[in-house]
Fold:
Amino acid sequence: MMKQNFWTFVVEQHEKLFMQVIQHLGLTFSSLLLAIIVGIPLGILISRKEKLAHFILGTAGILQTIPSIALLGFMIPFFGIGAIPAIVALLIYALLPIIRNTYTGITGVSTNVMEAGKAMGMNSRQLLFKVQFPLAMPVIIAGIRTATVINVGVATLASFVGAGGLGEFIFGGISLNNSNMILAGAIPAAFLAIFLDQTIAFLQGLKFRNLNQWRVIGSLITIIALAYYFWPTPTSNKLKAGFTPEFMGRQDGDLGLRAIYGLYMNPKIISDAIMYKAIHEDQLDVISGYSTDGRIKAFNLKVLEDDKKIFPPYYAAPIIKSKTLLKYPDLEPVIDLLAGKINDSLMTEMNYKTDFLQQTPEKVAQDFLKSIHLYKEAGLRNAGKIRIGTKIFGEQYILAALYKMLIEGHTSYAVETKTGLGGTKICFDALVNDAIDLYPEYTGTGLLVLLNPTEENIKEVTQNPEKTYHYVQQEFKNKYGIQWLKPIGFNNAYALMMRNKDAHDQRIKSISDLKAYLSY
Amino acid sequence: MIKVDAISKNYAGKSVVDTISFEAHNQEILILLGTSGCGKTTTLKMINRLIETDTGHILIDGQNIRDKKIEDLRMGIGFIMQNTGLFPHYTIQENIATVPKLLKWDKKHIQNRTNELMHKLHLSTDMLVRYPHELSGGQQQRVGIIRALIANTPVLLMDEPFGALDNITKSEIHTAFKSLDELKNKTTILVTHDVQEAFELGHRIALMDKGKILQIGTPKEMIYRPKNDFVSNFFASNRLLLEHKVTTLADLEKMFHIQDIIQPTLSAQSSLSAQSTVWSALQHLSTDKHDFDRYEKLSKAFAAYRKMQIT
Structure:
């Protein structure tokens, strides 16, 4: 198999790329349009009522500081998933520059000119539209320009809530260890930002002496925003599916669903941090997840039986560089203390405690270690520092906490955890580049995402978990000098899940049932 | 006619205008003269309600200005300000047409009126398509005057209109301004701190200090009949010049035989008339050595006249 280069990727995926660019522009412009509709009148209002200015600018400033992914998370109960929460979030980010610049522009009009207008008998409306607004226009447009650039950037995160856009490639690429995919998203996003910035800069140079030109631009933005909504989108199924970007690109994921089950879900691409929340809030009906996830129990979900066996079970095991093991000789025996100790139900139970009972991963880890009599108070920590990384979901946080306590209790190494790394690629690259020393990985991810084996290879090594483990262990040692330590015990596999109630009502037990239900 | 009746204005307890009353008649230019902070600009702006009075009344042609809609009041009053107040985003043409457009004049009418006034203030109509910042200070001020005159309002208020101009430009504009027949059917009030300008343009002058009018009268009265020391001291440094300027040949002619100066037998080149001031007559005569005798005669006549005025 030829290694794919950037151009072949772009050519192959040009339809998707084009779609994403349109979605990206649509998100940016719809939110911008709303921000203009809301922001300019607000800016005018506070230029007249100075007492409100402090309050409104302060509020807009605070909204601006909310981290975007958190804001998207807040939106789900109110706006569901898809374009609407993304547009609302983008609107919130675009508001501050527009309100502030409108306010600054209007209050900056010289009092002399204002007095001349008044003295000639203009009423406040005429003053606003004939004097203040045209004179403030360059400053207002500068605000819109800032907002546009911010929005092109933040719109990449829209893919977390299934709103599409170039974030699908960027975050998909990060999850799937595919640099071409990342670039295919990132480069157009950068170009969009530059292009829009320069276009608006050009408009700024024109003289806005009357409102007509302004109307032209307004309608232009509206047309682009509307085009986005009337763009033909794939018709939705009876059930709304939301899959993670990683699931979308994996053989034991959406590709397998299509190839083996003939199941075409037209899923929304969504981050797994938000996916469970979305199914719980009835915004999605079918999601991809992990079989050990605590939220399955917490949110009363039904794991559909994989009757055609496309989701082989995989071991979870810590991976670490061989040279690190040599450098810290006490490390391997301590890490292996946990090997085989956590079975599926124990892991699911622990996940449930963090995901649903809201216990901290540290507390859950401590309780577990005490229950198997491995817990020791941390002693001296002067023999060096081990850095443990995790991906951004609950199970990994618990594993990191377990290893930290284990290592600090049984050795004199100090442990630093770097939790919440944004995806497989980021974790793995961090390990390869010595930014972290170990992290828990799954043999399936190692096989399908990191090693990219041929199809026959896959067929052969995924017959059972041990075979996969041995193959991956061998390959990693040869290719990267990285060791897979002993498996922790539980099997993790991808799973399709639905709300228990729906599954029961529709009598869906397996993926084949789901396929039958959808094609019926 | 404008009647100002006992108006006052306080800012934060400090009195800026203190119970001022005066009248400005039709066809007259009334000057509000005083140093900065004397309340003259505040007084002026209370007439078109850019500043509201605290107490007192202002009547224009018998009607209280508060009884009118504020926009209508202002559309009936031309206003010229120190820094021109031209709209930087409008061309000269659009600036001039602002009020006519508010009054919904038709295009042709606006165009004719604009061209007429441009001509009167010696501005080329090529400038109409330019923007204010492309014009010199003097040109901008002329545009400001045109903008205030175009709607032919019965009242014209001018706030230090020529204050930012150099002396040569200023005297050019003074000449053009004085000769405007538009002023003949108006009541004009002009605020200035420039004594010479006040005497040059004013039919009557109101000298203000600390929010009060100290004396109001014709230039001649201000010079020769000062009500108190403040008034006479105010003009002291310009006195000689002002005396020459407030006296016309016609004034002297009543008492002295100066016919030969006004209508010289020798040449027709003379531009002197009975309306000429003594200042301009002497200026004129001093340029030609053949006029030496006539210069001396006029000087003597003026000296005698002056003596009679003062004593």
User: Anything to note?
Assistant: Chain A has three domains: 6-230, 241-310+496-519, 314-492. Chain A is about 65% helix and 10% strand. Residues 14-48 of chain A form the longest helix (35 residues). The two ends of chain A are 38 Å apart (CA to CA).
